[in-house]
Amino acid sequence: MSETPVGIDGIELWSGKLRLDLPNTFAPVRDEDPAKYTKGLGVEHSSLPDVYEDIVTMGANAAKQLLDRKGLTPNDIGRIDVATESAFDNSKPVSTYIAGCLEEVYEEDFHHANKGERKFACVSGTQSIDDAYNWIRAGRHRGRAALVIATDTALYERGDPGEATQGAGAVAMIIDTDPDVVALSTEQGFGSADETDFLKPNQQFPSVDGKRSMQVYLARMREALQDYESVAGDTHPDDFAYVPFHTPFPGMVRKAALLGFRHISRDTDAESALASEIGNQPRESEFVSREAYEEAIREYMDELKETDTYREWYDDAIDPTVDVARMVGNWYTGSVHVARLSTLIAAADMNRDLAGEKLLLASYGSGAQAEIHAETVQSGWREAITPVNIDEQLEARYDLSFEEYERVHDVHNHEKDIEVEAFTTPEAEFVFTGWGRMSERRYEYIE
Ligand code: HMG
């Protein structure tokens, strides 16, 4: 008898309410070619938080939208897991703040829900889904669902090359049995190593070795894919309708996808079909030195990316996964979940019948760890996804001038204490109102 599927039953997202136009506002001040953003990094805008927004308000707002849409109340929720790398407290978890906010607007409370906070850079959103999955599979959930929230304000030090990849937003997900959106595979692959590519040693903004972080991302992804195949069997490009990756910026996904395609097409009819055009993939045993082999691989990849076969696969399986990231930037823990949502929205817009098809999810967190698993799209996916009002949210963002952006960055800088007027007016949402007597952050719901 097959097991009841467990997976994502609903998804909502909350974008920071400001936006920075990268090619038109940011690039000119940096004296850079706008094409570096639109073509190189593949980004148009960053979402940024207004002065009354933070990881708690964005997370609570995404969660409330989701609970309301699904008709759930606190009694239906047995755990709240928050993934973030923007936490402001080393003891009290963000999930308690979010539960506190939600308890202001529901009659029931979350006193019997297990709450926590997950940390492992961007991969902790996926790890929180894992925790929920394991809790349900272990039979400890008492028929209740888990609320998983990935929320971050991904800001870099002013002048850091990473400033071009900032973003802010939250993704809320319900994990449950018989899910409407996707069922998770039991098989998982991990690629994990002690790395110092990106870290925040008790500091707000990250120390980043940008170029190295890209190499580490690719190396750990490759390890995770090999590990996944060791339990799930060999993969083939036709196995997956879409491959959503962790997306620090779409240009990173471009690199990862090319390596991924080479790997999953090796020793398959897909490699043979390309052989008359670009030859077979180089095998290390055919070369006298590692250098010669690596050179041959580079040449093969340069040719592979120009083939119609690869371009069509990329346009179908990868490009729709970065549609939203292009408009919002990196949301750290939420990023791969934004990529999944982006994929499903694109499939719904194309009227594609996706039920029963598979996604291959590729998550990554600096420090560093990649995780890969498959997801099977469920029959209720379209009805679950179409109400997500992402276009409306993105359209409503306030477009910052560069000088306004500088003030917004300062107001969210924990080292600075400045007053800045809000750029937007809150409506039917949680807002940050200031600090209490024990330096706790305080919130209220604005009708
Ligand atoms: P940079 O030095 O400003 O940019 O830093 P660049 O000079 O490398 O240019 C970027 C791309 O634009 C290049 O493309 C250029 O060629 C191209 P590539 O050659 O690599 O394909 N370009 C142009 N294209 C067309 N026309 C032009 C033009 N000019 C340049 N005129 C960097 C880029 C990513 C290093 C920087 O933004 C950074 O440090 N970002 C933060 C770190 C990061 O995002 N790393 C990604 C992997 S690690 C990760 O994903 C984890 C993370 O999410 C954190 C976590 O897990 O918690 C970050």
UniProtKB/TrEMBL annotation:
Protein name listed in UniProt: 3-hydroxy-3-methylglutaryl CoA synthase
Mind giving the lineage of the organism this protein is from?
Archaea, Methanobacteriati, Methanobacteriota, Stenosarchaea group, Halobacteria
Question: One GO MF term, please?
Answer: hydroxymethylglutaryl-CoA synthase activity
Family affiliation: Belongs to the thiolase-like superfamily. HMG-CoA synthase family.
Do you know which InterPro entries this protein is assigned to? Answer: HMG-CoA_Synthase-like (IPR053544), HMG_CoA_synt_C_dom (IPR013746), HMG_CoA_synth_N (IPR013528), Thiolase-like (IPR016039)
Q: Does the keyword Mitochondrion apply?
A: no
**SUPFAM superfamilies in UniProt:** Thiolase-like (SSF53901)
Q: Name one Pfam family in it.
A: HMG_CoA_synt_C
Q: Which UniProt keywords apply?
A: Acyltransferase, Isoprene biosynthesis, Transferase
Annotated Hydroxymethylglutaryl-coenzyme A synthase C-terminal domain ranges read: 197-412
